[in-house]
Design goal:
This protein is of the alpha/beta class. It contains 19 helices and 20 strands. The strands form 4 sheets. It has a 5-stranded parallel beta sheet with strand order 3-2-4-1-5, with helices on both faces. Strands 6-7-10-8-9 form a 5-stranded mixed beta sheet. α3 packs across α4 and α13 packs parallel to α14.
C-alpha cells in the first residue's frame, strides 16, 4: 500500500449501469467509472461501459448467476471492503438501478458498518427501458395511473412468499415482473386464481434495448405457452395489464431499418468501434473482427525530409481518415501545427476524410464527387492545369497506384510518401468461422482492400461463398480486390463511405 493510499479515505459509488445498452448510462455514472481505481461489475452491466474506465483501473467481474464462477452476495461484500480498504475510489457497477432488486441495501449496510463513505448513482431500471424500447407505455391517464414493480424470483431462504397476490390481482394499473421467466406459468396462475381475468393482456420483452430484443404478447392465460413456442427466455421483463396491449406502430426500436441484422465489421479496432456504433444506431447487431492494426511510418527519414520541405508543394492530398490522424499525431509530436499548410492547397478523397481534416482546423480545398483515387485525380485535373505542379500524397504504403499514375499522366510532379501501413491484427478467427458457417452472420462488410486481403488469409473465400452471409464492399477498389480473391460480392456502395455502405445494406434488406 502506498503512503498516498494510506492517507486517503476510501469511497464507493454504487452505480446503476442501466438496462443493457451502454449509451443509456447516466452522465454521472460514466464520470464515476472514469474516476474509479477499481470497478466491481455485475454480469448484467454491459462490458462496453468499461471504455469509460482509466487504463490502470482494476476490473473485478462478480457474476451472481447460478453455476460455476458465480459469486454469493457475502463474497461480493468481502470484495467490496477489500478493494475499498486501501483508500481507493471503488465503483460497484450494478445492472439497471442499484436500488431496484439490486440488493443495494445489503452492500450499503456493510459500507456503513465499516465507516466507508458512499454515493448511490441511479440508473435506468429494466422495466422503464423495456417499456420504452418495446413501445409499451406503462402508465396512461386513461388506463393505468399506477404501476407496480414485483420480483418474479424471491429469495430461496424465504419460508413463504411476501407477495400479496390478491392485492396484485385487484391492482388497477400495470404490473411489471423482474426475473420472472422461470416462474412465468406460476405467476400467471396465481394472478388468475386471485381474480385477474385470463384475457388480461401480457407481454414479455427479452434482452430489452439490445439489437437482439424480442417480444411475445398474449393473454395472461397463454403467455407462458407463447414464450415457450417463440423460445423467449431470460433476461426478460414481464408486463401485465392494459399497457401490454400496445400498438405495434409504437415499437420504434424493432422497426429500425437494420434491426435483427447481424453485421460483421472488419477494420482496425478503433475503426470497428466507430462502425459498430453506427450499426447500433440503425438497430443492427455488429460483430467486430479486427483484421488490421495501423502502424505509423512517420519516423522514417523520408517523412521527416518531406515535412521539412512542406512549403514547396502546391497540393497535399489525404486519402483516408487514418492518414489524417497519423499525420497530425506526428506533426504535433514535432512541435508543429496546422500553420505548416499555409502555402499549399489540400485535397481529401472523401467527405469523412475532409471532416476529419476540419477537426484539425484544415478546410479541404477539393473533394471529388466520387470517392476513389482515380476519380480524385481525374476531377482535380479537370479543375485546373497540374502541369509541373508539385503534389504530395500522404497515404498508406498499401494504397493502389491509380492516384499517382493519373496525376503523373497530367505532367504533375508527384511525391508519394507512405505515412502508415496496415499490419495483421492476428485476431482469433475460430469463433467467427463458427458464426459464419452456422448462418448467424447476415452481412460481411469490407472497407478497404487491406482488410479484405488479411481477412481472407484467415477465412477462406470458399467458406464465405458457401454460407448464407452476404458480402458488402465500400467501393469499387475494395470490390476489385475481393473479386480478385475469388469472393462473391453482393453489394458495392454507391457512396464510398461507411454511412454509404450502411445505406446500401438498408436498401438491400
Amino acid at each position: 500500500m502506498s503512503a498516498e493510499s494510506k492517507n486517503k479515505k476510501p469511497f464507493v459509488y454504487l452505480v446503476g449501469a442501466g438496462p443493457g445498452r451502454a449509451d443509456l448510462i447516466t452522465v454521472r455514472g460514466a464520470n464515476a467509472i472514469a474516476a474509479a481505481d477499481c470497478i466491481i461489475a455485475d454480469k448484467l452491466a454491459n462490458p462496453a461501459l468499461l471504455k469509460f474506465a482509466r487504463p490502470d483501473a482494476e476490473i473485478v467481474p462478480v457474476p451472481k448467476r447460478i453455476g460455476p464462477g458465480s459469486f454469493t452476495q457475502d463474497a461480493v461484500n468481502r470484495i467490496l471492503l477489500e478493494k475499498a480498504a486501501p483508500g481507493r475510489i471503488v465503483v460497484r457497477l450494478k445492472g439497471g438501478d442499484p436500488c431496484i432488486f439490486g440488493r443495494a441495501g445489503e452492500e450499503l449496510a456493510v459500507l456503513k458498518e465499516h465507516g466507508i463513505e458512499f454515493e448511490i448513482v441511479p440508473g435506468i431500471t429494466a422495466a422503464v427501458a423495456a417499456g420504452a424500447y418495446a413501445g409499451i407505455i406503462l402508465t396512461d391517464r386513461d388506463y393505468a395511473s399506477q404501476i407496480a414493480f414485483i420480483t418474479g424470483h424471491e429469495a430461496e431462504e424465504k419460508e413463504q412468499s411476501a407477495i400479496n397476490w390478491k392485492a396484485l390481482a385487484d391492482f388497477a394499473g400495470t404490473l411489471v415482473f423482474y426475473m420472472g421467466m422461470s416462474n412465468l406459468a406460476e405467476i400467471a396462475d396465481r394472478l388468475i386464481q386471485n381474480g385477474l381475468t385470463p384475457d388480461t393482456p401480457a407481454a414479455v420483452i427479452q434482452s430489452a434495448t439490445f439489437p437482439g430484443q424480442r417480444i411475445a404478447m398474449a393473454p395472461l392465460s397463454d403467455i407462458d405457452n407463447r414464450c415457450k413456442a417463440e423460445k423467449i427466455g431470460p433476461p426478460a421483463i414481464v408486463v401485465i395489464g392494459r399497457a401490454a396491449d400496445a400498438d405495434n406502430a409504437l415499437n420504434w426500436f424493432m422497426r429500425k431499418p437494420l434491426f435483427g441484422k447481424t453485421i460483421l465489421v472488419t477494420r482496425d479496432v478503433p475503426g470497428n468501434a466507430a462502425f459498430a456504433a453506427k450499426i447500433i444506431r440503425r438497430g443492427g447487431s455488429p460483430v467486430e473482427f479486427a483484421t488490421i492494426k495501423i502502424r505509423p511510418l512517420t519516423d522514417s527519414a523520408e517523412f521527416i525530409k518531406t515535412l521539412a520541405q512542406f512549403s514547396k508543394y502546391h497540393w497535399i492530398i489525404f486519402t483516408s481518415v487514418n492518414g489524417v490522424t497519423t499525420f497530425f499525431d506526428a506533426l504535433y509530436a514535432l512541435g508543429k501545427d496546422a500553420r505548416a499548410f499555409a502555402s499549399a492547397k489540400v485535397a481529401a478523397i472523401g467527405s469523412r476524410t475532409a471532416a476529419h481534416l476540419a477537426d484539425f482546423g484544415i478546410k479541404a480545398d477539393f473533394v471529388p464527387t466520387v470517392f476513389t483515387g482515380r476519380q480524385l485525380a481525374a476531377q482535380l485535373i479537370a479543375r485546373e492545369n497540374l502541369q509541373d505542379k508539385r503534389i504530395l500524397l500522404l497515404r498508406s504504403r498499401l494504397a493502389s497506384s491509380d492516384l499517382p499514375d493519373v496525376l503523373r499522366e497530367a505532367a504533375a510532379e508527384v511525391a508519394d510518401v507512405p505515412i502508415y501501413t496496415a499490419d495483421p491484427a492476428n485476431a482469433d478467427p475460430a469463433p467467427l468461422f463458427e458464426q459464419i458457417t452456422t448462418g448467424r452472420i447476415n452481412w460481411l462488410t469490407f472497407a478497404s482492400p487491406s482488410s479484405a486481403r488479411i481477412f481472407f488469409e484467415q477465412i477462406s473465400p470458399e467458406t464465405v461463398n458457401a454460407s448464407k452471409a452476404l458480402v458488402a464492399s465500400v467501393g469499387p477498389v475494395t470490390t476489385d480486390c475481393l473479386e480478385g480473391l475469388g469472393v462473391r460480392v453482393d453489394l458495392t456502395a454507391a457512396e464510398h463511405t461507411i454511412d454509404g455502405l450502411l445505406d446500401a445494406i438498408e436498401g438491400a434488406c
